Amino acid sequence: MNSRRIDRIATVIFWSGALAVIFFLGAIIGYILYHGGKYIDWGFLTKPSQAISAGGGIGPQIFNTFYLLLLSMSITIPIGLLAGVYLSEYAGTNKLTEAIRLSIETLNSLPSIVVGLFGLLVFVNMTGWGYSLISGALALTVLNLPFMIRITEVSIRGVPDGLREGSLALGANHWQTICRVVLPAAFPGLISGVVITCGRVFEEAAALLFTAGMASPAMNFNQWNIFSGSSPLNPFRPAETLAVHIWKINAEGLIPDLRRVADGSAAVLILFVLGFNLTARWLGRRIHRKMTAT
């Protein structure tokens, strides 16, 4: 068998694998949207859930999901970015950095249920915060931080050395080279890491069951005092996210319109993840073009 035929066979195999992934992904998304899309309307997106009567919605769960995303990523992104820059640009090759990388890889492989139990012990019980948004955000930070550090390090190491050498040759110092040359060049990889990390926040349920809780108190959206118990911005209140809500109503089955809420919630979650990914990548490309002037 000559090399041209081998190349054609390999190309067919690769294309078949890619098409199979697209097919199964499209089938899953289509199935969820077909069964849940018909239940989505303005009332479903804004009303609170009803435990007794039918006709409830997922308004508080949507707000809790995005608020938790904001809290978690505001911690994960800065720490992950700084740690990735240190490991790729400043840390040498020694036993300490090898131990750090081993710890990152180990944490990155931890099941989310283990992180949830750790969060229950530390962020819920030891701090005295109880089930709260801040406990859930910190647990998700523990879950996502190793991945963010790793993707930052890999993206920065992928920048050609010629760009660094050219910047240093023009008189820039190391920190200026990192901020003005290396990070803009690594920006697409960083955006991919942020998008994947945010997607994990959207879909996570196991860790939040033990930290953020499975119930949301009545929220007054006219009360913006962050220290008020009824304020939606209070990070120390318990909060049920959309993924936890889907698990809860399917596990307990206490509401009369179970199927409508479950299917509709799953469809909304899929649409949010798709919309967030597309928007983040579009915004990332625009920012990258402005930063690199291409």
Automatic annotation (TrEMBL):
Main localization of the protein described in the UniProt heading: membrane
BP GO annotations: phosphate ion transmembrane transport
Keyword Cell membrane assigned: yes
Keywords: Cell membrane, Membrane, Transmembrane, Transmembrane helix, Transport
Cited InterPro entries: MetI-like, MetI-like_sf, Phosphate_PstA
Compartment annotation: Cell membrane
GO cellular component: plasma membrane
GO molecular function, one term: phosphate transmembrane transporter activity
Signal peptide start-end: none
Keyword Membrane: yes
UniProt-listed PROSITE patterns: ABC_TM1
Membrane topology according to the record: Multi-pass membrane protein
Domain ABC transmembrane type-1 stretches: 62-280
Transmembrane feature ranges: 12-34, 66-87, 99-123, 129-147, 181-202, 266-284
PANTHER family for the chain: ABC TRANSPORTER PERMEASE PROTEIN YQGI-RELATED, PHOSPHATE TRANSPORT SYSTEM PERMEASE PROTEIN PSTA-RELATED
Similarity section: Belongs to the binding-protein-dependent transport system permease family. CysTW subfamily.
Descriptive protein name: Phosphate transport system permease protein PstA
Biological classification of the source: Bacteria, Bacillati, Bacillota, Clostridia, Eubacteriales
